[in-house]
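Loading example: each entry is read as two labelled lines plus one structure line.
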Amino acid sequence: MEKSSTKKSSAAKTVARKSVAKKSSAKTGASDFYRLRLYIAGQTPNSIAAITNLKKICEEKLKGKYRIEVVDLLVKPQLAKGDQIIAIPTLVRRLPPPVKRIIGNLSKTESVLVGLDLQPAR
Amino acid sequence: MSRVKPKPKVVRTSLAKVPTGIQGLDEITGGGLPKGRVTLVCGRAGSGKSLLGMEFLVHGAVEYGEPGVCMNFEETEEKLTANVASLGFDLRDLTKRKKLLVDYVFIERSQIAETGEYNLDGLFIRLAEAVKAVKAKRVVLDSIEALFSGIVDSAILRSELSRLFRWLEDQKLTAIVTGEAGINTLTRHGLEEYVADCVISLDHRVTEQISTRRLRVVKYRGTSHGTDEYPFLIDEDGISVVPITSLVLTHKALTDRVSTGIASLDEMMEGKGFFRGSSVLVTGTAGTGKSSLAANFTSAVCARGEKCLYFTFEESPSQILRNMRSVGLNLEPWMKKGLLHFNAMRPTSTGLEGHLAVIHRLISQVRPSVVVIDPITNLVSASGSYDIKSMLVRLVDFLKMQQITSMFTNLTFAGDPQERTAAAVSSLMDTWIVLRDSKPNGRPRRELYVLKSRGMAHSREARELIVSKKGLELGIVLKDHLPASAGNVPN
């Protein structure tokens, strides 16, 4: 990991790193493609639950048009600053805009769907 | 009941402390903040919490070789850098040299939806990373209460906060957390529940249009600390706290003497004048020569090559210079030589504590051997409900600790020579010189007598004070003088 990614430009850097993904997303149409990044800190029960819950939701609601990146802050602590991570787990919806942040182990499916704009808030 | 039981030997292990580098604060706390512990600094918006935190970090980095991390929940690095640049702190340079790291933590409530269990490991990891990056010994969390607006689940937040404070202590970091004052509590969200060791409260009050800032050490476990409210100033040098009342009277009484500047007045005081480090009160009705006496004393001090700090609340320095030339005193050379420093303030420009803070700061800068305050009467107009006597106790105390000789003039009113303020302050004064007008046989004259002077056999006679172009001198002993009845003179 480059040092510079601890700076504010880390979002831009990440996009550059994942340029392959971006190209493919361009083909599928960027507007409905979901780029999700899940921040965890080690293999805690909450982290494992969040990964499992997220995969399940995505498979059900976003099949074929999502991409999940899991960032373990114990491995890459410098990434916490760029996305302003405080709580763990935090899910960041990087695409489609606007950026959304959802915290918790994603066990409350309805809240997750509302948070991701996949379902209107009741 | 065995009363002969030998007293157990008390082992006094003094708590390890970390100096803040903030003038006065380290004196009040007996050395600074508890080392490796968390200190809570609370106060309303604009009370100076953030500044106190930043000063703690900057002084630590610059003066004590202790790098620091500021986790700021309110302002961006850029804004913070700009804010403290006006106080002469170069955060950019300190950051470049890895002495300081500012991490701006942004919390926006609208972006956070809560979907199940979580903890604040993200924050912990960021803090740990920042601490590691500069090998920090000091940490400021300003203001951690912002988390309460972003984290809805307060049960999680509270348990995480206490985990955070424990973590800071485990890492042996000396930390300041700031908190917004609540209505009936020290902080809005009860942060004081988590901080057991040291709590400092800041206050910014406006009474009768005069604002004063005050600092109070609410608690400090394992340390005797001043419990008073201490006035403090925020100016171009940052915060300075005035450690006003020392707990005990320990100042050393000096035996060497200082000339009054008038040979014949010295004569009345065993031929030697005032004691060095003593306090002198000069009272008199309008036009009796109080300022002239003070200026004369000042001039004599400077002539010996000592420094004098002259606070004037009535006239501008140039007005004093002009007036004193008329009585044969040329003070200008002393000013040019840097021996005489004037400070002219409007009494109402700030509160009594504000004046005290300014006086305190200037004394620390100039390091004079004599301080003149001319007149203290005018400070009464700035006092509001606050007791001028308590301020003067603090001031006189401070001056004595510094072994500075002080002269205070006080205007009294005709017909009431021992006017109330004089009576209130005179007990603090070692020497009291009374000036007054009289008109025996229709010829007006000024009279001077030494009403009291502790520790010396002073003359009790009244003499005429002759003020002329040649200066001040004392005339013959006045036989028709009636000394003030001792009954109404507090000693």
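Chain B has 15 helices and 23 strands.
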